[in-house]
Amino acid sequence: MTVLIIGGSGFLGSELVRQVTAAGCEAAATFATRPGGAGGVTWLPLDLRDPARVARVMADVAPSVVVNASSGLSDWAVTADGAVRVAQAAVGRGCRLVHVSSDAVFSGRHVHYDESCLPDPLTPYGAAKAAAETAVRLAPDAAVVRTSLIIGHGLSGHERKVRALAAGTGDGVLFTDDIRCPVHVEDLAAALWEVALSDLAGVLHLAGPDALSRHDLGVLIARRHGLDGTRLPAGRRADTSLPGALDVRLDSRATQERVRTRLRGAHEFLRGDGRAEFGAAAAAPA
Length: 286
Fold this sequence. Notes:
Helix content: 25-40%
Mean pLDDT: 93
Radius of gyration: 18 Å
Strand order of the largest sheet: 3-2-1-4-5-7-12
CATH architecture: 3-Layer(aba) Sandwich
Largest sheet: 7 strands, parallel
Low-confidence stretches: 273-286
Structural class: alpha/beta
């Protein structure tokens, strides 16, 4: 089986590459600026704004499975139109497609969101992700997987920010009213790989069971790294002009009942002894 990971040099993409190659599958991965560090992988440059290049990569790799884990942020040409091009190419070649989406497609107006909830984004990024979802769902048997704040091994952007703030080398605050359901990158990648090998289709939710503010999550991260969480500056996003949802809690229970990979909560994978964070995800597919 040949697997193509779009955005393979990113945080989530790198973990997907690691797990796919560990499973003994042939893997190809794309990058926008520079390839990832994993060996045994065919690294391919890809600009999702270039339809001809998307088609060429798909033809050269001839994958059985495509996982789109790219992140073009609020760049519509990448995040929305690029996802459409990947979906079209995957359908044209008869590939299994798994598309990674985000809780940013929701406004937070309803707080709790299960897989049946329709997008109502507040930001350009959320709107681009919602548009991508609509296109991908037109592909037969494709899976759209929404997730939340991705954490793991101190490498995520949020973890790096927490360490800088705790050390007094960074600027900014951690919001007490900005609430998400963090997921460990290993768990998410394992669940995505399981979905890719299954016949699950439509909208799925893969987020952790613990709803935490960015500040509360920061305190857990600081403690995990032996830092003083009381030094983390707190603030309210509602008191700023920053756009975006406040309280968005993905309800992943329906999807969790359909996948074997257990999604741990942040309180578990950020325990101070490190055993939970660095242990293998339970029931990961072989």
